[in-house]
Every structure is written in C-alpha cells, then in structure tokens.
Amino acid sequence: MDRRIRKNQEAIMNALISLLTEKDFAKITINEIAERANVNRGTVYSHYSDKYDLFDKCLESHFEQLIESCQIVDEQEAYPSKASLLRTFETMEKNALFYRALLTNKGVPPFRAHLQEMMKQGIQTQIMEQNRSLDDLQKDIKLQFLSSATVGVIEWWLTHKSPYSVKDITDELWTLLELNQMIPKPDSLAQKIGQPL
Q1: What pTM does this model have?
Q2: Residue 86 to residue 93: CA distance in whole angstroms
Q3: Which sequence spans correspond to the domains of the chain?
Q4: Which fold, 1-48?
Q5: Whether pLDDT at 197 is above 80
Q6: Proportion of the chain in helix, strand, coil states, percent, rounded to 5
Q7: Distance CA 24, CA 34 (A)
C-alpha cells in the first residue's frame, strides 16, 4: 500500500478515535472527521463509504491486532497461557484510548458483546480440547464464565484508566482463573502434553 494512503487512513482512524472520546458516535460527522484528520471530505470518502464503514474498518484493524496478540508465539506455549494474556493486555494498553472510547461511548454499537464473542471464539477450541470429559452444559458454562470474567476485568481496567500495570493485572487475573479451575494448572498441563515442566 502506498505510504501516503496508509498515512491518510491512519489519520482518519485516529481522528475518529479522538472524536469518540468527546461525543457520541451518532453525532460525529464526516466533516468533523476530515477536519480533525487534516484531510478533505473527498479523501475520507475515497477510503470509506461513510462513518459506519470507517468505524467497522477501525474496529476490524484493532481486533486483528488483538487476536494476533493472543496467538501462540512458541509451539511449546500452551493455550491459554499467561504470556498470551500479558500480550493481550499490552496490546490493549497501547490502544487504550480506542478501547476506552468504545467501552464508554453510548453511540457505539455494543462493543463489550463483540469483545466477549471474540474471547469466546479465541478460547473455545483450546479450552474444550483440554476438558473432553465435560458435558455440553459444563463446557458452555465454563466458556461463558471464562470469557465474561476476562472481559469484565479488561473493561474495568480500561475504564478506570489502567490503575495497575499490565504485569500486575495479568498476574492477578491469571491467579483467579487458576483458583477457579478455569485454566489447567502447570502440572496437569504437563501431563496432557506429555512433557515435564
């Protein structure tokens, strides 16, 4: 992609994010986005059909980054892992303005539901593979609990302007997940993988 096009798209997305921190999405206009991005209306429309398309592309871009942060980096790394959770928090901290705006802006479609659905999809296969003996009810409840708990902590952390460091929040959340048997303990994980830790 041409560097100038990428620069314009970034400026337009950043303008939208900035405006989302100030007013409801429904009240934001293309003119305001263009002015904030220091481009003309035509430039905005050359990249996006309307503000909803811009919002969707912005959301898609950030979700892709978030999903990538959750991915296993090393084949030896189990999922879910504390390292992947830490990377998720680091990514959210890097884009805190965006995520905070989505969680607090009344005019934005329910972002929390999208985030939780993404979490569910990301953990469903891995969690269920580690718990083959569970029946459907147990699997559904476990998945719902894990995704809700994780998203709830993320939402609280972001809307309270990250009162604790990424490392501290990751450590605490991971400990709670272990205590509630929502993730396998290191010794049981080693047995499942068949490797000593």
Answers
A1: 0.72
A2: 10
A3: 1-48, 58-193
A4: Arc Repressor Mutant, subunit A (1.10.10)
A5: no
A6: 75, 0, 25
A7: 17
